């Protein structure tokens, strides 16, 4: 549950998600659930750009045209890239140890 | 447990599957295994047009994207309706790589070679005396560098 709560703190921040089919998506995180399924807004890929009308144009993914938002199934995510300022690694490590200790005490 | 798919109900979506196929249509239903049903025909000329319905098993889904239909129609204005209809009523079109870790022939060959080399190095090890630990380490390193 630790990483679920970590991702909850990242809501409304910009993240980059790399999927197992080598697709790389950048967007603002809108919601997370317990399987780490993600919902992203304002999607862009490394090769997409804004055209004259301010619409996002995706060259390599033409069916992304007219895309509002995206639901990503957690099981197909390989990496989530975050900015360094979003996460305090020391705090995260401490929390992980504490959770492990709690589990040991209970079970 | 529920997936937050309620907002997509009865909207036009595209679904990318693990095999790399893309399916476009209207999301009609989902359950708590994330199995979803999709009405395939986006463009309907008459009300009686046959709509095919597809049920997709949840574990095969990679992403579900909500589409803005007005924008889609704007983009598709240049293309004539017949070809568009054909396109949408077609079987799913493959766009992406598979997410399943399928091994290609070259890597299998490489692994076979690697295993052969390893078995050879095992026989060498037996010939060495027990005291020659350092010597063995050096040999192993050279073996690895060859591979």
Automatic annotation (TrEMBL), chain A:
UniProt cross-references to SMART domains, sorted A to Z: Sm
Biological-process GO terms, alphabetical: deadenylation-dependent decapping of nuclear-transcribed mRNA; mRNA splicing, via spliceosome; rRNA processing; tRNA processing
Subcellular location: Nucleus
Main location per the UniProt record: nucleus
Gene Ontology terms for molecular function: poly(U) RNA binding; U2 snRNA binding
Residues of the Sm domain: 2-86
Any single GO CC term annotated in Swiss-Prot or TrEMBL for this entry: precatalytic spliceosome
Key words, A-Z: mRNA processing, mRNA splicing, Nucleus, Ribonucleoprotein, RNA-binding, Spliceosome
Gene3D superfamilies, per database record: 2.30.30.100
Matching Pfam families: LSM
PANTHER family with a match to the protein in the record: SNRNP CORE PROTEIN FAMILY MEMBER, U6 SNRNA-ASSOCIATED SM-LIKE PROTEIN LSM2
Family in the record: Belongs to the snRNP Sm proteins family.
Name of the protein: Probable U6 snRNA-associated Sm-like protein LSm2
UniProtKB/TrEMBL annotation, chain B:
A Gene Ontology BP annotation from the UniProt entry: mRNA processing
Ranges in a coiled coil: none
Protein name: Sm domain-containing protein
Gene Ontology molecular function: any one: mRNA binding
Keywords: mRNA processing, Ribonucleoprotein, RNA-binding
SUPFAM superfamilies: Sm-like ribonucleoproteins (SSF50182)
Protein family (similarity comment): Belongs to the snRNP Sm proteins family.
Upper classification of the organism: Eukaryota, Fungi, Dikarya, Ascomycota, Saccharomycotina
InterPro entries, per database record: LSM_dom_sf, PTHR15588, Sm, Sm_dom_euk/arc
GO CC, one annotated term: ribonucleoprotein complex
């Amino acid at each position: 549950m630790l990483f679920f709560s970590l991702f909850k703190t990242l809501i409304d921040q910009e993240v980059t998600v790399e999927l197992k089919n080598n697709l790389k998506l950048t967007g603002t995180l809108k919601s997370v659930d317990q399987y780490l399924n993600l919902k992203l807004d304002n999607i862009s890929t490394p090769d997409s750009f804004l055209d004259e009308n301010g619409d996002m144009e995706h060259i390599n993914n033409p069916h992304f045209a007219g895309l509002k938002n995206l639901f990503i199934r957690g099981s197909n995510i390989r990496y989530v890239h975050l900015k360094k300022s979003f996460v305090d690694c020391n705090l995260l490590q401490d929390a992980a140890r504490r959770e492990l200790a709690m589990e040991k005490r209970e079970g | 447990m529920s997936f937050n798919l309620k907002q997509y109900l009865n909207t036009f979506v595209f679904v990318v599957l693990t095999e790399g196929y893309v399916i476009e249509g209207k999301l009609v239903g989902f359950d708590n295994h994330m199995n979803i049903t999709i009405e395939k025909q986006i463009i309907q000329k008459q009300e009686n047009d046959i709509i095919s319905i597809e049920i997709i098993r949840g574990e095969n889904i990679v992403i579900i994207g909500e589409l803005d239909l007005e924008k889609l129609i704007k983009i598709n204005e240049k293309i004539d309706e017949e070809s568009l209809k054909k396109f949408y009523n077609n079987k799913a079109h493959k766009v992406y790589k598979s997410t399943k870790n399928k091994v290609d022939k070259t890597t299998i060959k490489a692994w076979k070679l690697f295993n052969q080399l390893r078995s050879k190095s095992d026989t060498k090890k037996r010939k060495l005396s027990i005291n020659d630990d350092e010597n063995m380490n050096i040999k192993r390193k050279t073996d690895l560098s060859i591979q």
